[in-house]
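Batch job 17 of 40 flagged for manual review because the log was empty.
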Amino acid sequence: MFNWEGVTEFVAVAETGSFTTAAKRLEISVAQVSRQISALESRLATKLFYRTTRKVTVTEAGQVYYQHCRQVLDGLEEAERTLTNMQRTPRGKLKITAPTTYGENRIAPLLNDFIRLYPDLELDCHFTNQKVDLIDNGYDLAIRLGKLEDSSLMAKRLASRRQYVCASPAYLAANGEPHLLSELEQHNCLRGTLEYWRFQEGGQERNVKVSGNIHFNSGQSLTDAALKGLGIAQLPDYYVKEHINAGTLVEVLTNHQPADEGIWALYPQNRHLSPKVRMLVDFLAEQLD
């Protein structure tokens, strides 16, 4: 029979980095936390923490043990939540963040549809292009676009986006159409937040530094500049696809189109994905796909 003594105390200390904070979380004394951890280390014959007067650090063995313990506790919490929420309508607060333009145009209408289905939910949504800290700011979910950098977050791919390099027919008539990546040097490239554009060449990803006299941190503004013949832009499909279909923008460098990027739902690794958040993630994936 597995001995559970000390496991919840160990996980609490590992996640908070403090015996005192862990005791407050568990609503027990610091001395009890310390006793349980010491007993657990003795039973395992393994040191789980490095302790100083100012800091508590998880050992390498402790990290391995924590991952397994967290999975087990998550499974137990999942079982309890499943039972208690089986017959319940999702309710409570959902705090979400998403990129500004994509959030306003694509995510907000879907969130409103979701709230219409489940009116007992309280929605708190913030649109920003800044990478906010989900844990520190209490977010349940974040929508992110493109390549993911933060490996400490769990991610579910909701959909894909495609990047297009395009210009107006008038611009191409006046300046010619580029057929090689090297020819971008001869064109006015409408720049966004990055100084380079992503391409595929010879089956490999390649970043090409571009330059031009217009710089916006707004996809809509770049789209407007391209439509008015001011240069070439590389923009996601949701900005330019309808203009390409209408012929008001022309796609170029099609042989070098980069691989599709992900549209992601992110949530903290150590925060259980509650049923209401899971339902929202599934709903967004279904609608965005």
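Reviewer: the log was empty due to a logging misconfiguration, but the result itself is present. Residues 7-85 form a domain with the Arc Repressor Mutant, subunit A fold (CATH 1.10.10.10). Unflagging and moving on to job 18.
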